[in-house]
Amino acid sequence: MRDASWQRRLALGSLAGFVWSLGTVGSWLYPATREHLAAGPAAAAALTAAAAWTYGGAYLAALALVYGWLPRPRWLAAPAALVLLEQLRTGVLGGAPWALLGQTQHDVLPLAQLAELTGVAGLSFLVLLPAAAAAEPRPARTVGLLTSAAAVAATLLFGGIRLRTLPAFDPGGEPDLAVVSGLNLAADPLAAYVAASATAPPAPLTVWPEAAVPGYLSDDPSAAGAVARAARTRGWLLLGAPRHENSGGARRYFNSVLLFDADGRLRNTYDKRRLVPFGERSPLPALSTVPRPFSAGTADAPLATDRLRIGPLVCWEAIFPALARRYAEQGVDVLVNLTSDRDLGTGASQQLAFSRFRAIETRRWLVRASGTGATVLVDPAGRVHRADTLHLGPPSGRAGRTIYVRFGETMSWLSAALLVALWLPHTANVWPRWGRK
């Protein structure tokens, strides 16, 4: 693209963006669309292609388009432009930060620790830096590659030090919470969760996943009674279930997290804020893809038991950094991701990979309760553990506020400032000198 016209850059970027995005999500999004929306093959293919392009491919096409207009050195400007475009991806049309470039480093833990300082944006910058340098002619290529090597080395050094200071998972100790997962496809999911909880290790808090109760408790006294009895038997109970309420004569539906106390009373509710486009809401007001769309929640306050402050994240909310960051600012003890995974297929492993950064950014444990898979615990270093109970340790030893939690997406502001700084020398030759005759 270096010397191509803007039309050719846009064409190349569009092709690459579509192939990349569809290759990333198509294998699971197409069957999910057919299953969840009951769409035929043609309609499902069209919706899959539209979603892949709108929420992913278009941004790579935009990067290709602006590449030829970026100030030099482009090996610095291109990563900054990518960071800003990925920030747009996180917010536009409800946002979809799925498969950001920095998320590729989820399993390279010494590099991934950079997220404590910059979030995923810093990793996106770092990953694109050597690639952008390699695309430059000499001598800019040499300078860019040497700078990239130095940046990667510094990040590895920082990450190695942080990993040594963060303790590994200790399966011992009195558990603070127990998770019962993987029963959403049972003939009677609620009965299955009640039965499994009766034999689970005792803990002050028990967690069931998203849609563990598939129906509306307010419409089913028998189900509501079963949940209340389970809470009285187990203690505090956190679970996912839909709910509805009437407002102004209209009924609104929510995908919610319900917290019951040890007396079986509903103590608090969290309504999912980041709804899945096409699946839980229509992406545009004029496009009706959901017969009964959910309404987005408005509150992001933690849910509190008598011992823990919990930051609930429903399904793909765990890939959005802002929610987890706000919870960490409010001093939660643990992030709990309640997810169904029913329609995700192989996408569930992608969601887990992207969710690991919430633990690193906030230095909190992330508990992932899956409706169709196993329980996963992600420690504050981003390491993944397969266990159904978690001991958090004494409150005095739990995490405070990281640089990222304190200052948020500063990498986006730094990228914008870098682009402005790179442009300034060029503007001296572009703008007319005032007073010249």
Give a description of the structure.
Helices cover 46% and strands 14% of the residues. The chain has 437 residues and is α/β, with parallel strands linked by helices. The protein folds into two domains: 6-166 and 409-430, no CATH class; 177-401, 4-Layer Sandwich (Nitrilase/N-carbamoyl-D-aminoacid amidohydrolase), CATH 3.60.110. The longest helix is centred in the N-terminal third of the chain and has 32 residues, at 6-37. The mean pLDDT is 91.
Quick overview of this protein structure:
The protein has 437 residues and is of the alpha/beta class. It folds into 2 domains: 6-166 and 409-430, no CATH class; 177-401, Nitrilase/N-carbamoyl-D-aminoacid amidohydrolase (4-Layer Sandwich). It contains 13 helices and 12 strands.
Defining traits:
437 residues, alpha/beta, Nitrilase/N-carbamoyl-D-aminoacid amidohydrolase, six-stranded mixed sheet
| Main β-sheet description | 6 strands, mixed
CATH topology heading of the largest domain:
Nitrilase/N-carbamoyl-D-aminoacid amidohydrolase
Q: What percentage of the residues does DSSP assign to strands (E)? A: 5-15%
Instruction: State the order of secondary-structure elements, H for helix, E for strand.
Output: HHHHHHHEHEHEEEEEHEHEEEEHH
Q: Please tell me the total number of domains.
A: 2
Helix content: 40-55%
Total E-strand runs: 12
What is the CATH architecture term of the largest domain? 4-Layer Sandwich
What is the average per-residue confidence, as pLDDT, rounded to a whole number? Answer: 91
**Separate helix tally:** 13
Strand-pairing-aware structural class: alpha/beta
Shape annotation: globular
Over all CA atoms, what is the radius of gyration? 24 Å
Extract low-pLDDT stretches: none
CATH class bucket of the largest domain = Alpha Beta
What's the CATH H-level homologous superfamily of the largest domain? Carbon-nitrogen hydrolase
Q: State the separation between the terminal residues, measured CA to CA.
A: 39 Å
